[in-house]
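User: Reviewer 2 asked us to show a designed sequence for the structure in our supplementary figure. I'm pasting the structure tokens here. Could you produce the per-position amino acids so we can include them in the response letter?
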């Protein structure tokens, strides 16, 4: 998927930061959508499916090799081989996501990005280490949140509307943030807050230096399905900032 900066522009009111930590009291976030390639040709879908199967096969082959060489207990596997497996697991997860989101509608992705931005702006959590503000460009931002794609599903085929909504989004460093600080966030970072309906798909790589996440509305509700998935993504971004604020703002 190609990426372009489509800003979600909102009216912002910045609270003045006080004290010696003024520079650290405000954390800036830019929300945008990705340019989504609408894949309507069946051959493209088949290619995505084949890539997913190949990624799965690569991961399984390495797992079998490591079990044969070092036993079934992963704790005994060499660190460098576990890192190799981790990279294949991530490649499989991304290939799977590319296939699952092959029918994503760019208009839905734009609306979802707008809702995520509004939710971030409205959220007022006591757990926030500082003020979180939206910016109008990646150049001004500490973090860039990008909605890559959206998809829906039905719990039962007879339902008139989908009741399960998902959002694929990324979190990466903005140009206002020192990239070495973002690199300090563990590649295997997981959102551990109970009730946060979002999970990591893949951590940063040299080719894609962003975290990939997927959020979910919780299922079972047709009304407000896309909005609930967007709010879950917003909560995940908030948790990411809360958990990693120290390393992201370290001097």
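Assistant: Here is a per-position design you can include in the supplement:
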């Amino acid at each position: 998927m190609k990426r372009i900066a489509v800003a979600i522009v909102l009216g912002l009111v910045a609270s003045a930061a006080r004290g010696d930590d003024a520079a650290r009291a405000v954390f800036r976030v830019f929300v945008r959508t990705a340019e989504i390639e609408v894949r309507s040709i069946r051959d493209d879908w088949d290619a995505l499916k084949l890539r997913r199967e190949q990624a799965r096969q690569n991961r399984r082959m390495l797992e079998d090799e490591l079990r044969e060489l070092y036993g079934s207990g992963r704790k005994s596997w060499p660190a460098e081989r576990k890192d190799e497996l981790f990279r294949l697991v991530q490649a499989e997860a991304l290939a799977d996501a590319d296939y699952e989101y092959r029918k994503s509608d760019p208009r839905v992705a734009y609306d979802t990005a707008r809702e995520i931005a509004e939710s971030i702006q409205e959220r007022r959590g006591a757990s926030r280490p500082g003020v979180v503000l939206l910016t109008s460009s990646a150049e001004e931002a500490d973090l860039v949140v990008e909605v890559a794609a959206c998809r829906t599903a039905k719990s039962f085929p007879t339902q008139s509307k989908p009741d399960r909504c998902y959002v694929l989004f990324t979190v990466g460093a903005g140009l206002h943030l020192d990239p070495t600080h973002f690199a300090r966030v563990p590649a295997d970072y997981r959102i551990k807050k109970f009730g946060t309906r979002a999970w990591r798909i893949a951590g940063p790589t040299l080719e894609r230096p962003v975290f990939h996440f997927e959020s979910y509305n919780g299922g079972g509700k047709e009304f407000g399905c896309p909005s609930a998935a967007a709010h879950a993504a917003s909560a995940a971004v908030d948790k990411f900032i809360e958990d990693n604020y120290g390393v992201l703002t370290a001097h």
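For the response letter, you might also mention the following. Residues 42-70 form the longest helix (29 residues). Confidence is low (pLDDT under 50) at residues 1-24.
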